[in-house]
Amino acid sequence: MMHIDEPGAIVLGAEGVSAGYGVRSRNVLHDVSVAIARGSTMGVVGESGSGKSTLARVLVGQIAPARGVVRLDGTDVHRLSRRERFAARRQIQLVPQDPYSSLDPRMSVGRALAEAIAPRGRLRTGAHRDRIAELLASVALDASAARRLPHEFSGGQRQRIVIARALAAEPRVIIADEVTSSLDTSVQAEILELLLDLQRRLGLTYVFITHDLAIAQYMCTDLSVLYLGTLVEQGTTDVLSRPGHPYTELLRDSRPDPRGRSLQLPAGGLASEDVADPANPPSGCVFHPRCRYGPRAHGDRDRCAAEPPILRDVAPHARRTACHFPIGPAAQKPDEGGRGE
Hints:
Elements: E1 10-21, E2 26-37, E3 41-45, H1 52-60, E4 67-72, E5 75-76, H2 82-90, E6 92-95, H3 109-117, H4 129-138, H5 155-168, E7 173-177, H6 185-202, E8 205-209, H7 213-219, E9 222-227, E10 230-236, H8 246-253, H9 294-297, H10 301-306, E11 312-314, E12 319-321
Parallel strand pairs: 3-8, 3-9, 6-7, 7-8
Antiparallel strand pairs: 1-2, 1-4, 4-5, 9-10, 10-12, 11-12
């Protein structure tokens, strides 16, 4: 039986985490701190290359942070013994974007689930048959699916299998990394409803990585906005309707590009549409080269280019914003004569 947490307390968090890839360890995540409450769903949003998936892999333990700590129930997971770390990592499971590439095409679904139940090979013939059937039923698949191979299923069914595999470890936290982005719209809705149902029944905590703000608004209780590996805003999902940071406002006002780019930017109002290298972000505020307000709305432009803003509480709405000149709830557009406060 899966452990059900009481809501409210922080189950998983990162403090001052910087992380990257490669031998030279060029960080693409910079001084990021998040705190995920039990039973909540924290959304992480931002353009492609903002560091969303890197944060997911740091939280699940696939990438060790260059700086900072990851805590499970307040304990630094990297200070645990090898055995304790293995047990801790089973409590945090990743559901990746592409279910097919994460499944061994030569391995039956039943075998994949059995290995997730007993990852160190302690398997006996038939020992996990009931548990495998239970896991498949929990994601609305028949027990006969255990005998089949991944290519015999649709994309939505494969995503259900990957979710079942994550549940096999009896986790407390599931990190969902763009889990619906490769699915048709109708199938997306089915997967989202499945995740919500599992959360209600099992008391799961979610970290939901997505570029789709409509999905974030629907699924999430809290939101963290990443730009070039830097947290620029945090709060409830109300930050999407009342953003405090110009980048959050840009995301809200943007729409999907039919040619497949991550964002189609609104006409006018941006100082620059070029996104910098996450491993070599601009000085000062990382967003200042693209900010629609900085050049025209105030005379302290040098401060934006030279001084990194601190993520701080912004009234009157419950949010934390990393901006020297945060937007007010009645902010004006650039062509309306400046910005509101």
